[in-house]
Amino acid sequence: MNVSHTPSYRASGHAMHPDPYAQTLARLATEFAGAFSERGIEIVLDGCIEDLSGVSFASMPEMSERLAQQRITSYCHSRDRGFAGS
């Protein structure tokens, strides 16, 4: 999936509302560009959302983004030190 083609708004009735998932995915893709694939970021974000299933809907975008940032950063540091699996 190419994040640049991910819609960041979704229709609800006649109004357009920001899509928090697409916005979070786009921010993470920008932050980790060149260090982590867009598909990898999507997989990590999906796992974070699943792991945070008990979090309120209103808190989910911020909490899932923070958790994904931590997981991706940890992975990148481990990889840079030669600890990542192949």
Name the features.
single chain, 86 residues, mainly alpha, globular
Detailed description of the structure:
The protein has three helices and two strands, in the order E-E-H-H-H. The protein is globular. A hairpin with a 2-residue loop joins strand 1 (9-12) and strand 2. Strands 1-2 form a two-stranded antiparallel sheet. The protein is mainly alpha-helical. Helix 1 runs parallel beside helix 3 (60-80) and helix 2 packs across helix 3. It has one domain.
Radius of gyration based on Cα positions: 14 Å
Helix content: 40-55%
Number of strands: 2
Strand order of the largest sheet: 1-2
Could you state the oligomeric state of the chains shown? single chain
Short overview:
The protein is mainly alpha-helical.
Question: What secondary-structure arrangement, pairings included, does this model have?
Answer:
Elements: E1 9-12, E2 15-18, H1 20-31, H2 38-51, H3 60-80
Antiparallel strand pairs: 1-2
